[in-house]
Structure formats: C-alpha cells, structure tokens
Amino acid sequence: MLLEILGSLFGLVVALYISFKVFFPWVFYDVIYIRSFLKFLSATGKLMQNGLFLIDSFEEKVVKCPDKIFIRFEDHSYTYKDVNEQSNRVARSALQIGLKAGDTIALMIYNEPAFIWSYLGFLKIGVRMALINFNLRSRLLVSALKASEATVLIVGEGHELLSVVQAITVDIPEMEIYIQGIPNGEFPGKMKSFQAVMGLVSSDEIPRSHREKVKHKDPGVYIYTSGTTGLPKPCLVSQTRLIHSGCFCRTFGIRSDDTIYITLPLYHSSGLLLGVGSAILEGATVVLRSKFSASKFWKDCRKYKVTIVIYIGEMLRYLNSRPKEETDGQHCIRYAFGNGLRMDIWDEFRSRFQIPNIAEFYASTEGPVGAINVFNKVGAVGRLSPILRKLLHAHFIKYDVARDEPVRDENGRCVEIKPGETGLYVTKIIHRHPFDGYKGKKELTEKKILHDVFEKGDRYYNSGDLMMIDKDYFIYFKDRIGDTFRWKGENVSTTEVSNVIADLDFIEDAVVYGVQIPGCEGRAGMAAINFKQLEVTSLDADHLKAISEQCNDLLPSYARPIFIRVIKSMSLTSTFKQYKIDLAAEGFDKNKILDTMYIYDTMQSKYVEFTDAIFNSIKEGKIKM
C-alpha cells in the first residue's frame, strides 16, 4: 500500500514537472533567478538589521584583513590598512576645516586611489558628497556645482582640473575650494591646499560617534544624471542604496578572492557603487585605471590576475576591434559584469576572448529596482515574468513615442505589453522600493513619477527606458525616451546641447537628437540648425570655426555633436517631438538627406564638410567613431 502511495506521488511529481517544462518553462528560470536574488537580500538584510553602513563593513575588513591589497593602481599597491589610514586623514582634515555630518561637499577627482580614500573618509564622518564629472566645463560645471548646494569643492590632482576650476571661480564665490595632491604653493584666488591639512593630522581611527546621527535613508552621495528631463541633476543615493549597490554582485557569486578591474569613471554608479562597493563588502581587491585603454586592457588583466571586469558595451566594442592576438583567451576572468552590450558584440567578445560568464544588468542611479542576466542569455538584461512582476512591482507599459506619453485605455489606465512587444519600464513606488529622487526642486523628482497607472492613486517611477520582453520573459533594452540619448557610455541632454549651439548669434534655432551608426553603441549627436538669415544654407569658414570653438569650450567631448545639418526652417506643421523623430529617422544617410552636412574631425578639432567619401567610409567601418 505504501509503495503504491509513494509511486503515485512520484508519478504526480513527474507529471507536474513535465507539465511545467512543457507549458510553463519560464518558471524554472524564475526559480534560479529568485535564488540568486535571495543571496543579495540575505547580504543586505544582515547589514541593515544590525544597523551597519558600507563604511562599517570597510572598517571591519580593515580589522579582519589589514594587509590584504585593496587597490592596485599603476605600479602602486595599497592595503586595506593603507587606505584606512589615508581615509582617516581625509576625515580629520574635513573636521579641521569645519565640516560635519550632514554637510555637503563636491568631489572632482580623476580615477585614482585618492578618490576612494576621500570617499571613505567623508563617509566616516557623515559628510555627503556630490560626485562631479571631471569632463564638465564652463556653464555645465557651474550648474552641477550649484545644484549640489555644496559649501566646499575638493579638486583632485592635475593641472587641467585646476585650470578648469580656476576659470569658473567667479561664478561660485560662496564655495571654498581645496586642492589635493599639492602640499603648498601659490594657488589662484582663494584656493587652498587640502594636502597640507592632511599632512598635519593623525591617521588614527575616527570615532564612530562622528556619524552616530546618520540614518540609512540619509544621502551618502549625489550622482549626476541627465535622465530624460534636461540638465544634469544630482540623484540622491542613500546610505541604504550604497549597501544595496555593493551587494548587487552577490547575485552572480562574487567572492573575497576576486580581483575587480575598474576603468569606468568613479563619479558614476557602475565604477564606484557597484565596483568599489562590491570589493568593500566582500573584502576583494580593486585594480583601478585612470581611464579605459583597449591596448592595455588584457595586459592588465593578465598582470593582476583579474577575475571580474566591469564594462559598458562601448568598451567591449573597442576590444573586439583590436587586431587578434594569440593571447586573446589567456586570462583568469570569471565574469564580465556591466551594461549596454549589444547582441552582435556579445557573441564575438565571449567566443574570441573565451569569457565564461557575462552578467549584463539593467539599473539606473535613481531607479528603485534593477535587473540582471544570470543565465548568459545573449542580449538580455534580466527577467520580468508574471511571478517576478508581483515580487518586484515592476511592469512594462505601452508607450506612444510620437506623443511622448504612455498609452492609456478608456478608463485612463496604462496598458501592459505582451511578449514580443516593446514598452516603458516602470516600477511601483512603495516602502521597500523607494524613489529618493533628486536634490533640489521637487518638480524634478515629480517629472519622473507616473500617477494612476493601474489603479487610482498609485505612483510609479518612470525609468525613461524602453524594453522588449520575449516569450520566456527575458527583457532586452531598446532605447531611451525624452530629450536624452546615450553616447560613449554617457547620457547626453539634447536640451543643454541645443542651448549651447543656439547661443551663437548667427543661429536662429538648433534641434539636437541622436542617430544610430553601424557598429557603434548608443547614438551619435546630430544638431540640425537654421540661420537667422533664412537664405543661408551652408556654413562658411567663420561659421565652422565659431561652432567648433563653442562646442569644444562648453561641452564635454561625449556631448559634442558628431554631425551638423543645416536646414532652412524648423517645422511648423507637426509637434516638435514628432519633428525630432522624423529627423532622427533619416539618421546621417546622405542618400536621404539633401541638406548640407558637416562632421566633427577629431584630428583637426573642428567641423568639416561631410562628403560622400566620409559617409561611405563610416558605413564600411573604415572610420571609427
């Protein structure tokens, strides 16, 4: 009798397994996916329940493994103890110049160890940091600094940084400026030496009492994003989010014996929050480079026995384009972890360089919920099945790109997409998935919130990203909405670029948008301009010089338009949004565009005529963008 019952139960289990495998195969993916996220939740839960912060975890690692290498940079190595002592000096120096918990400073430092120990030092005393993009110049830099409401600016080593800041001191008279790396000397204006202060203070441990009033919901750093609503603005990254970001790599199994290679700028989330944060929480090692170099990438990986590389898709495209070598597959890499990797690059990179695992993820600095592909599924950034939607409160809704708004039904509610369709990624704003928003004006935060999405009164975070979902509920990034496009791993605000170009006295108006180029990640900038003198339809030498100087002086290199297109007048018959869509659809194709066009020549640092020969060379991949 017992054997019959056991046999029946076994048969039922087998039948259920086969049924799920045939009719609901995606459930098995969900089991693996949920299990990977439980590792993440377990790690964050332990820290949060014990009232600990990221900086507490770092100090624990200093006690546990003081002599372990934390940072390798160029020909130098720094142990956890070394970095801790330097961060203690930073903290004491900050106290010495009058900073305290709750104050905000702006940090503008290149990728170097000083960035990391400055970051840790300010965390030790609860000082909030606005992380400034060191590519910003002039008006954009002033805007970012003022938006931070920082009282002090810390500038890293480098004469270029010094001159850039010196050029805007008159615009930030209320801000104290301290220079790192130069102990003493003659500084322009009111600038002072932070290094000199650090040389006078102790490296002894900083009492935890200096940050005892800091809460998990309080800001730890402000990271800038242009999002989809205009100028770069500081996203509030809470102390909780610092922990969550650092634990994110638990989903694919990061270990304490891993060595993480970081070439991405530390002022962005991927480099600092995910890369450095993961190393801190695991007690791992970071190999830091000042900037990405395709020619030195694999040499570094072999030299330092790198096991995890953090990437953006553009980096891997550059690596693929390098001449093949016999040593291509010789390395210790277990995982390549990052985002923005196109399908065509994915397969070539994985096979040519023999990468066992690629963990492509999706997240935004301010977004409540992210996703990660732990299945090596080519092109996917994660999953969102019916089960996961319930758990994560995340959805994809139909979006009208031309009208720049979600599609709503007769009841005014948004409509979920079906497998095979593309929709806008939104996440419900609830207690465990908060949207902290942006520093400053509340309207900036409100612009990112959708109301009455599925029920009256509900609130959802608008990611600004369009995704496609397949029949197995894997999700694939497609595009960004609004007045932003992505190029060279950076978000470009079309509004700001338009304003810079339209400031020239001979230009009536400028429309900026992104165009796709074969073999390139993201979209290259195109500025369609028209003259105040309507009869002018081309640029002479003086015009080209003026536009080149304006873009070079006032825009970061990634935001500078690749193409200039001269049009007779802006459209008056359709919506401005639709007009931009129509222009973008024509791309940079000289066979479709009758207008005069120009292209930025990086060798000459100026715009030149866009000829048929240049167009064909770009199509054939002979010119690298």
UniProtKB/TrEMBL annotation:
Domain of life from the UniProt record: Eukaryota
Segments traversing the membrane: 6-29
Localisation per UniProt entry: Cell membrane; Peroxisome membrane
GO molecular function: ATP binding; long-chain fatty acid transmembrane transporter activity; long-chain fatty acid-CoA ligase activity
EC class of the enzyme, as a word: ligase
Function of the molecule: Acyl-CoA synthetase required for both the import of long chain fatty acids (LCFAs) (C14-C18) and the activation very long chain fatty acids (VLCFAs) (C20-C26) by esterification of the fatty acids into metabolically active CoA-thioesters for subsequent degradation or incorporation into phospholipids. The transport and fatty acyl-CoA synthetase activities are genetically separable and are thus independent activities. Esterifies VLCFAs in the peroxisome matrix. The VLCFAs are actively transported into peroxisomes by a PXA1-PXA2 heterodimeric transporter in the peroxisomal membrane.
Listed name of the protein: Very long-chain fatty acid transport protein
Organism encoding this protein: Potamilus streckersoni
